[in-house]
Design goal:
4 strands, 3 domains, two-stranded antiparallel ribbon, 24 helices
Length: about 550
């Protein structure tokens, strides 16, 4: 048995450069063959190849444990080209994407059963998953840029799968515009970094950054462009509108988009953390854009009557929060949040139908709030006490871990949302005790998991990041803003009958009309055909009929 294990390890080490490429190559291959042959009888191969991705990602993780970080040989010229970087960050993302990809592909097999263009959808889905895998494994700026663009294009064709749905076309059009702007800013930033360092190899860039005390003007501009790229990719304000309209696409697309593709923005910030942490303008921009979007979207989320639109605003808020804490420099918390949000949101979208039925059948009755200012203040004090005790027990330093404490302060506001509804209602001590334990568990989970993520990713993120006074001021302003918004929400029982509160609720339900402005820019409010996308309803209907007839003819000939 021992000799067998040694032999297996040697085989894995021999194929360590090929193994991570196995899953995306297979998925790309089956996608191309399916589109060429137009057959739907090989659906099982999509599931098998997706499962292969899980296996190869896990084995790649074992190789990483066995020999540490490594790069595959460069396929390119002048230090630009295709190269894989196998490190804790890329492998963690690779495993997550492989798992989510398998789940979404398996779900899609039954979800689109009977659809004449099911094979087209499966091929597009497989291509998207493969491109995301190659994106997170990128060890070179050239590969990162190429698959950043390829991922966006693959997503575009998923969004317009149902071409006769005007809202889906409008969403795809807005996404296309935002994505192309993001591609342009990313390209300029990559060119600047390549000119400054003379290489696209990420490891060489990170090593060179360690020898520089401050960034020059060119690199500062590059970091600002990277921030704009991440914000456009992750549907930040004011270009978020397309995301809340993708509910017109098939549910598996929404699940993959919200659980995986949106995360490219925060991933880019963490991947380039050694560069971003040296730029004060980039940090302040992340805090401003991410902080405002997180607040805006989380408040709008509470006003939405549609479960899928509400989930869309939830994703926008989560992406904003991830970019915010990247601006704080707490990259481990950003990745922790990214992984947790991905699995939660995939489950949320794939189970929306059953959740709606379950809620309708149970008719859960919430406890009526009293609205007592004393009880609200007492609840907030209780949440602060729990956080202070946990911080003290964990040895968090207010001077050395300022941004971590700020991140935790926002978590405290979340704890108050658990405690206040219980203390501020006519309910027994048993329920209060349970809510206190729940809040304690949430706070403990944050510190434990953040520490575990720090141990896992320590070599891939800045370990001694200390924000300057400008960044600290921005952090302080954001925490105060979060506190004010949460306090207003906690006092909602006293405000719900106010005329101004009702008017504000109407404006928030419409997302402060930012999406309406975007709709006007693309002309989707007019009663006209989307000529830009070359979509004609009659042509699409004829194409579907032609596809159905060809399938029937092949089935008749086979029989």
């Amino acid at each position: 048995m021992y000799l067998f294990v040694l032999f297996a390890i040697k085989i894995m080490l021999h194929f360590k450069f090929i193994l991570p490429l196995l899953a995306p190559i297979l998925l790309f291959a089956i996608a191309v063959l399916t589109l060429i042959s137009r057959k739907t009888s090989k659906e099982i191969l999509f599931e098998i190849f997706a499962a292969t991705g899980i296996l190869s990602s896990l084995i790649t993780g074992l190789l990483l444990l066995a020999q540490g970080v490594y790069h595959t040989p460069l396929l390119g010229f002048k230090n630009l080209g295709l190269s894989l970087r196998i490190d804790p960050l890329s492998v963690s993302m690779f495993i997550m994407i492989a798992l989510l990809g398998y789940i979404v592909i398996r779900f899609s097999k039954n979800y689109l059963d009977g659809d004449a263009r099911k094979h087209v959808f499966m091929a597009r889905l497989a291509s998207t998953i493969a491109s995301v895998q190659l994106l997170v494994l990128s060890g070179n700026l050239f590969q990162l840029f190429v698959f950043w663009v390829v991922t966006s294009i693959c997503l575009h064709y998923l969004l317009i799968f149902y071409r006769r749905r005007p809202q889906a076309v409008a969403a795809a059009r807005k996404k296309f515009i935002a994505a192309r702007l993001g591609d342009l800013t990313l390209l300029i930033a990559v060119v600047i970094v390549y000119i400054e360092f003379g290489t696209g190899n990420l490891n060489e860039i990170f090593v060179a950054l360690g020898t520089q005390e401050i960034l020059n003007i060119s690199l500062l501009w590059a970091t600002v462009l990277f921030v704009i790229t991440a914000a456009l990719k992750s549907a930040q304000f004011p270009t978020y509108g397309w995301l809340i309209e993708v509910v017109e696409t098939p549910t598996p697309v929404s699940a993959l988009l919200h659980a995986g593709l949106l995360n490219a923005g925060p991933f880019l910030m963490v991947r380039l953390g050694f560069l971003m942490s040296e730029s004060t303008p980039a940090s302040v921009m992340l805090i401003a854009i991410g902080g405002f979007t997180a607040l805006f979207a989380s408040v709008v989320f509470l006003t939405q009557p549609s479960i899928k639109v509400a989930l869309g605003y939830s994703s926008i808020a989560h992406m904003g929060f991830m970019l915010l804490i990247c601006g704080f420099g707490v990259y481990t918390a950003a990745i922790l949040h990214l992984v947790a949000h991905s699995f939660y949101k995939a489950h949320a979208f794939l189970s929306t139908g059953s959740v709606v039925d379950d809620v309708r059948s149970k008719r859960v009755k919430l406890q009526q709030r009293i609205g007592s200012p004393f009880r609200i203040i007492l609840s907030i004090g209780f949440a602060l006490s729990i956080y202070a005790l946990l911080s003290l027990a964990w040895g968090v330093s207010p001077t050395e871990d300022f941004t971590l404490l700020a991140t935790g302060a926002i978590i405290v506001m979340g704890l108050s949302q658990i405690i206040v509804p219980t203390l501020d209602s006519k309910i027994g001590f048993k329920a209060i005790f349970k809510s206190g334990l729940m809040a304690l568990g949430v706070g403990m989970a944050f510190f434990v998991l953040e520490h575990a993520a720090h141990i896992l990713l320590d070599s891939q993120i800045p370990s001694n990041y200390q924000p300057n006074h400008i960044v600290k001021t921005a952090v302080f302003i954001v925490v105060i803003a979060f506190g004010i918004v949460v306090l207003v929400q906690l006092c909602a029982p006293k405000l719900k009958n106010k005329k101004w509160a009702y008017s504000l609720g109407i404006h928030l339900r419409n997302g402060l009309y930012a999406n309406v402005i975007f709709n006007r820019l693309i002309g989707s409010l007019k009663n006209e055909t989307f000529k830009w996308a070359k979509l004609q309803i009659e042509d699409e209907h004829q194409a579907e009929e032609k596809s159905k007839n060809s399938i029937q003819l092949r089935q008749a000939s086979n029989s």
